[in-house]
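Hi everyone,

Forwarding the result from last night's run.
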Amino acid sequence: MDLHKLRGFHAVVQQGGFTAGAKRLGLTQPSVSLQVKALEKTLGFQLLKRDTKRVSLTREGEVLFELAARLFETEAEVDDLFKDRSLLEPARLTVATNQSIAAHILPPRLDVFTDRFPKVEINIHNLRTADILASVRDGSTDVGIVLIEPGVPWLKSRRVLPYEMVLVTPKGHPLSRRGRITLADIAKYPFISYTKDTETRRLIDQPFERVRQKISIRMALGSTDLIILYVSLGYGISIIHNLNIDEANRVDLHVRPLKRYYGREHIHLIYRDEASLTAAARVFLDLF
């Protein structure tokens, strides 16, 4: 069936006449009249009674008008859906990162994001760097956030927020009073580090390995916040990134930069490619 002819018939009945129906469609009255006549010829039924000033429906016309009304209501719903792109977005944003970023970097950005996408369910997975990269690659994660340059050709990487490595000791620790500190000075004291085979642990160990200086590991923990807690309790000293340092934990800690041994690092956003991202995921990336 020719939908243009059906649309003409529907408009005539809905508006109560050929002139009003034609005006509704932006057509001339004669052209709409021809559409209706052609439709009647195609179906083999008279659809409209034309012996009054206001058109009325035949029995066959009533049946067809009811079907046409449902059809064009559905068409209007489809148009509205595609006009509002946010309705087409998936109801989920999946982010993979570590605990430090999830706790200290994401909250203010998620405040902005949830204002823009209040219906999107946000899933945040706390993973190791290798697992973050794997999850972005296989598509189970929209955006990964890591502390190092991933250096993998099949993923896109965007360098964003800077951070630096710092030495943290309890307040009153002998190293807190030293003007200049060497790696050998640090190695003399019980050390709290990150667990083995993590990127941050490897980053911390590199300067010591270059000078063949051995650290005295007392504890290995998987969380920067836990390391800060145990340092403040006096179990040892540590080298951490400064993302978790705030005024609250500075009360119990002495913090000093180690720029002589560690260069400035950056948080990196990881994703497959811009084209594969939803509008919600692209907005999330732009919050950094």
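Residues 128 and 217 are 21 Å apart (CA to CA).

Cheers,
N.
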